[in-house]
Amino acid sequence: MKFFIDTANISEIREANQLGILAGVTTNPSLVAKEGVSFHDRLREITQEVSGSVSAEVIAEDAEGMIKEGKELAAIAPNITVKVPMTLEGLKAVKAFSDLQIKTNVTLIFNANQALLAARAGATYVSPFLGRLDDIGHDGMTLIATIAEIFDRHQLETEIIAASIRHPLHVIDAALNGAHIATIPYKVLAQLVNHPLTDQGIEKFLSDWNNQK
Ligand code: E4P
């Protein structure tokens, strides 16, 4: 499983990129709005920093509008992936982008039929939202496993991005259940590194080293 970072914050992206594990970035309108910057300018900055896929979401709700916006986004850099919401209009746009060889990430996936439809329409990625399903008492992880099984059984090449990740266990379970990618907020990425026994071990090694006779 590969790691994407789920943020539009350039400092977080730079920090994560220095770790040598970053395969891509996902943004969404809420994450961009938090930054208070021009969307296109920020996408330019991100694509200069990261060579992997950078998902940029369309705002239009009709296929025609999505296609127009998506073409403008895709023109920013070759590694832009156009993020499209899972709707009937979104599927039409995904098909058009697929014909134009523009990569897509179908977002807001909450059931396996949505994922299968997106894959058949030609999506490069689908993003099932684990945390938001867990929030309403559903099992987000079962959805990842189901989509992985369907894609495997029908030899679909669309990659599964485990999204709406809230904690380190989500990351382990997404990897075990067949997600190709987890897109993770910076805070969770930092948590993945930590273990109290690692900290205690470092402290003990250092104190033994400093107290040697
Ligand atoms: C994925 O691409 C989305 O940007 C993101 O994972 C949504 O997460 P949230 O439910 O924490 O907003």
TrEMBL record:
GO molecular function: aldehyde-lyase activity; transaldolase activity
Transport found in the keyword field: no
Main location (coarse class): cytoplasm
GO cellular component, one term: cytoplasm
GO process terms (BP): carbohydrate metabolic process; pentose-phosphate shunt
Entry superkingdom: Bacteria
Signal peptide positions on this chain: none
Keyword vocabulary terms for this entry: Cytoplasm, Pentose shunt, Schiff base, Transferase
SUPFAM superfamilies found in the cross-reference section: Aldolase (SSF51569)
EC number assigned by the record: 2.2.1.2
Catalytic activity reported: D-sedoheptulose 7-phosphate + D-glyceraldehyde 3-phosphate = D-erythrose 4-phosphate + beta-D-fructose 6-phosphate
Positions annotated as active site in the UniProt record: K83 (schiff-base intermediate with substrate)
PANTHER family: TRANSALDOLASE
Family: Belongs to the transaldolase family. Type 3B subfamily.
Protein name (database record): Probable transaldolase
Gene: fsa
